[in-house]
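Let us work through a complete example step by step.
Step 1: write down the sequence.
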Amino acid sequence: MACVVKLRQDVSAMAKPLDDHTDKELEAVLAEGRLTDRKSAVAEEILRRRNEAKGEALKDKHGWIGVLITAFGLLLFSLKRLWRRQARS
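Step 2: predict the structure and record it as tokens.
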């Protein structure tokens, strides 16, 4: 009887569309292997797209830091070359 109740809980847990599940729920279900091959592929794609969206949001929010670091690096490189030329003269 306990197996039947557990099975019903598992089935009802995934009754809603995969898009409506949180990342943790999808990862847990994928780790347990309770989905069919097709649903597993869909769940993996959902997780991949969500991670890409998070990365894009992070890049949009903090992208200026990369520009600042690049500019600082180029400045140091240019100053180093300038100092070497002055030292040779």
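Step 3: interpret the result. Residues 2-63 form one domain.
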